[in-house]
Design goal:
The protein is of the alpha+beta class. It has one domain: Hotdog Thioesterase (Thiol Ester Dehydrase, Chain A, Roll), CATH 3.10.129. The chain has 3 helices and 7 strands; from the N terminus they run E-H-H-E-E-E-E-E-E-H. A 5-stranded antiparallel β-sheet has the order 1-4-5-6-3. A two-stranded antiparallel ribbon has the order 2-7. The longest helix has 18 residues. The chain is elongated and about 45 Å long. The termini are close together.
Length: 136
């Protein structure tokens, strides 16, 4: 099941040209990711606390399809997918809202679960794996 997150583009999101700075698309997607986790009942304080396991972004890619400016209303679709027992991807579609929604960007992040001590790969925590499987 795809999760949807809505927000408004703010001045701080934009660059000198008045459009969203390319790196801020990833920040917006990460906001949507956090909201999706919270909506699934995963406590963010515990998720990001050091329990010996972290799930950093190992890869990201983005295609920017149309500019977004301050005041634009957007909707971000968040769709996680299992890659292996130790990794997952999240596909995002950022929609510019209006009379007709139009895709503004397509983003993908790939995450790997690792030990904070050894940096070796570990299986995904149960709550995270359950969230991803429920979305599939």
């Amino acid at each position: 099941m795809t999760f949807s997150y809505t927000r408004t583009i703010h001045f701080a999101d934009t660059d000198a040209a008045g459009v969203v700075f390319f790196a801020n698309y990833l920040a917006i997607c990460h906001e949507a990711y956090e909201e999706a986790l919270a909506a699934a009942g995963i406590p963010l304080g515990g998720f990001f606390a050091d329990h010996g396991v972290v799930v950093p972004v190992a890869k990201s890619e983005a295609s920017y399809l149309r500019p977004l400016a301050c005041g634009d209303k957007i909707r971000v679709e968040v769709t996680p997918k299992i890659l292996s027992e130790k990794s997952y991807a999240i596909d995002y579609v950022i929609w510019k809202q209006g009379a007709v929604e139009k895709r503004a960007a397509v983003v993908r992040t790939e995450h790997v679960c690792i030990s904070t001590q050894t940096r070796e790969r570990l299986p995904l925590p149960a709550s995270l794996a359950t969230w991803i499987q429920a979305a599939s």
